[in-house]
Design brief:
Chain lengths: 353, 353, 353, 353
């Protein structure tokens, strides 16, 4: 291999050879700015099997050895959430940049410590909010931040399919981080979730929720809703974002019309002084305009995650989905979990701090 | 017209020439067992316009005249909900059978009076829960009652599209009666809704909810959920009913696959003594079987409503969706409305009686 | 009924109470400029059943009586094709305007006679090319005639579903008239079909083709193709029209995206002097732009047919789909039939005259 | 790497690092019974780029060196069709087993030589008809061969999307081999294509057909049709196979309903002596039964190709898609090309031998 390339590339170790680790390895290998040095897993046989028989990447079960390797400047951690705090802290303390899977940690206090540690150390701490790096989500963010859809009126996300019941988390912690990280990513600056009500059910008697509904109130008064379900025989991944000008419908199972921009809706005009009655009078008709399906590039999200991670390290800037983004998502998840325990009672986000 | 036919057919008057009335007229006219005598509306011009220039049906603005007509044995009432109590009561008192639009009345106490009045009088009081008469819903009911899908584990219904904001009701009272009447119709005997939590939003400032989410707890422990929304630019009408054996997906916007019966899911075996942990262990894999799309007749639901109304009258049996069914739906709606006022707090069904 | 309206409305008789006649009656009744006087069928019981028990329209089995009625100024003929020549000729000779179902007649010579007779008499002869009056087809025509899609490069139409094998016609004469009338309607002025090659099959042994493929060469060098099939268990109604600027995809079974305007394709630039080789070099990449789904009104095509018929009569102008349009479609059908007999040999359109 | 595994695995060289070669490398690497030794391309830099920086596979531009390597027992050839004859012949003469991309060669005589050479040498010559190894195609074949759909009445395949105009082949040779190899694979034993009529167009003026329609007559009287098009802005990949008992619809762009088995159609009963007229009388109604979507494994076709190649070598049996299958497809392609030159005239398959 050419010395020049590998000399400048950022040495990386991937930690965890389970479900997601192989994807990190594959995409990091395809990123010129990164150089994969190690795949680390307690089970070296599994790690070797992930790499296959043709790889020059090293295998180890010693995290200490990885952190001690001076050629390793960054680690990508794909282990169970309960191990994140210890592994991330150790990496930061060893001076390594960190990419960590969602959720950043299992509890808020730990996550704050990591974020602060990374900031003190001048190291990159990035959360792998993979979905935020899909071209469609980037485009949605641009449209919302650029004012193309107007004010956000509602957000509705459905993420359901036949999923394996997870050994350590409920459906909320398994699937909702995707929707919540997307919500956090696309909302206009300053808009955030203030309270959550969550309802769930465990019809199989597994001891944890297998389906859940989240109602989220935003500080601009809008309502967001997330439906996650492991028991649905069909895969639905649809997010609708209603705006005062346009409404976006993202159907991720429909590649031919993945993003629909609807120029339809109900116009109220600009007269803010209208009474309820006057507004209702105006609503007896609605506008039906064209629908546009924007062309989107077909790039793999995780490839873009890797590029962002490398670039954030190289330029010492915060990653788009940095530790603080992970913190915000974690706060909502914690509030949702508490609401679930309280049978759907509304819980303020951050109130448990 | 042949005397014999019209002599035996049940004389009917349709009350209300607004949005739904014309459909009642058209379908009643196509029902041999019924004979439409009058279309009654305060606005006779509108009623005449509904009938068109080629009709032999009479027009009147006098409800009293209709009730006084001895050839009228039954009335079909399609007026605003707030008028139902008075109109239905008058009809029953005049000895007429009644088909009434949903909701049966605006409040529970009134509905109870009507149901009891009809029962005392030996008259048919039927609610036009139109969707229950769709072939697909009849089939779903048969499959659930017949045990083909096993125990009902969850029920999820989405009914959203760009709808006119209604002058007198919120989205809950406009759309959710459909989902609730279907739920009431298909659930196994003895299974019913015990509590409701409802969240809504009014992003247009019209003074009433334009989108709402209902969480319904059933007495068998299962969770039902209904999502209704007037602001969605796309029309979604999907109901998923998860069972222990099979899961049904009804997508009413997809005529080629309106009902899907999924032989997929997660098997737990029959050992009820399994611990949570043992159940989770079992859940590391799931079953993926075939999907069947049952052939369904293409009959119009409202045609079947008319046939059922006529047959219930002729045979003096309760209609499939009788006044008591209307009462059950009304109780849930009322609880949902109260929960909406209480910001989503859980409200027991029937607790306000 | 108001005298003024019916006095000015054009008195109409509908001839034929079979499959299509009832639709003509219903839509003519909903058209203020028309006044339905008679439904005429050899089988008066059938005609009476079509009208139902509530109609004031007259029933007769005497075509002569209809033609003798001075209040009847126009007839709409929905009888088997083999009867068209005689019925249309008689109506024109009686001074009545005529709307006739497709195909205009069973053979070209007869059709020419009718067209010339109508023109000599100053009467409207209109073909019920219903599909041309769909809002989507009107829009396609506007886009092509207005240059929005550029030069037409190809036209591909699929019209298949489980259809009743017809007693008197093959699948070509049953279904292809729709595609051919649409093609005739939307092509730019001056562009027309010059030759046809048709292949068919009769796998059921019914003595006539149940599925057929038509290849049509246009005088601008473009290729059109039509696939019709009575044996397909799924309904497909898709027409794709490739242009040098944009490509249209009309999927009539998908109301949510009925018309798609694709700003995608292969650009060649304007240099007409490019060699084949140079053109191929340019084609190593292509343009992928947005897709637009234009908003379309939801009006019934046959309603627009009736309005056009009434307006053409009232203003003495040729109908959009006049007898000459019917002639052009008939010529292609005849050439296709001949090609079918010749096992797909190419037949020039009009060569059998 | 473990000696035992690599000692028994079949040493393989992949020839060609262009569009398809990387897929061969990746899938061969994932096949335990194969051991990839070399990636050979005239452009070593390209070959190295395909392998990436982490691979232990060797790169060479010398085909002679590959054939001289005793550890190489088999080659997989993914070079332009014009080079196939020379490369395959050399490999067979060097005693190597061969997997070759479609089409097997550019002309029939050459292909016969290769097939005979392989048979004489006792070597495996397999054509990479990738689509035949899709689970859905395997299932279709089983259903047809097992009699589940009854007699094949028609076959209709559409394979269109925006494709790069190829430098060396027309759309027929680029896309139709897929449909023809599938047709060859699924037809019942003894059923084959006897003649072809092909129509094409080159609306871009590139000197070769960019869209084409093939009509294929089978020796059982049934009709097959293939539509291939590089200019379609939407991707359509649908194959419909009509049978006397059931009809299959394979829509490869719809993962949720990839294969539909329609128990619908037109029944004729078993009385073969029915006259045309009697048959038509029977056809006034049809049967509409359920649709079944069989569960299908989600395995990558090319993985199965590699497994089949390795197993055919190991057991010295002909591969499922052996050289003779490639020959049959080539004969049809040649006949289609000739028909294209003859403006759609019907050409017998094999008549140019």
């Amino acid at each position: 291999m050419p010395n020049s390339g590998s000399g400048q590339a950022i040495g990386l170790a991937v930690i965890g050879a389970g479900y997601w680790g192989p994807n990190l390895v594959r995409n990091a290998q395809a990123t010129p700015a990164l150089r994969v040095r190690w795949l680390c897993d307690l089970d070296e046989v599994r790690a070797r099997a992930v790499l296959g028989e043709y790889s020059t990447v090293g295998v180890t079960s010693s995290y200490a050895d990885v952190l001690a390797d001076p050629l390793v400047r960054a680690v990508a951690i794909a282990t169970p959430a309960s191990t994140h705090f210890e592994l991330v802290a150790a990496a930061l303390e060893a001076g390594k940049h960190v990419l960590v899977e969602k959720p950043i940690t299992s509890n808020h206090a730990d996550a704050v410590k990591l974020v602060e540690l990374a900031e003190r150390s001048g190291l990159t701490l990035m959360c792998d909010h993979t979905f935020c790096y899909m071209p469609v989500v980037r485009r949605i963010r641009e449209m919302i931040h650029g004012g193309e859809i107007g004010d956000v009126r509602f957000f509705d996300s459905v993420r359901i399919n036949l999923g394996l019941v997870q050994p350590d988390v409920d459906v909320l912690w398994d699937l909702a981080p995707h929707d919540l990280s997307i919500l956090d990513f696309v909302l206009p600056p300053g808009t955030r979730v203030v309270s959550v009500s969550a309802h769930g059910a465990d019809p199989l008697g597994t001891g944890r929720a297998c389906l859940a509904y989240l109602v989220l109130r935003l500080n601009n008064g809008a309502l967001a809703h997330v439906h996650v379900n492991w028991l649905s025989p069909t895969k639905v991944r649809t997010t609708m974002i209603g705006g005062s000008r346009r409404t976006l419908v993202w159907d991720d199972t429909n590649p031919a019309a993945r993003l629909q921009v609807h120029d339809r809706g109900i116009d109220l005009g600009e007269d803010a002084a209208l009474s309820h009655e006057a507004r209702r009078q105006k609503l007896i008709s609605y506008r039906v305009g064209d629908v546009v399906l924007p062309a989107l590039p077909e790039t793999e999200a995780l490839r873009a995650v890797m590029a962002e991670f490398a670039d954030a390290i190289a330029t010492s800037r915060p990653a788009l989905t940095d530790g603080r983004a992970g913190l915000r998502v974690l706060e909502i998840l914690e509030a949702a979990s508490r609401s679930l325990e309280l049978d759907g009672a509304t819980v303020a986000v951050g109130e448990n701090r």
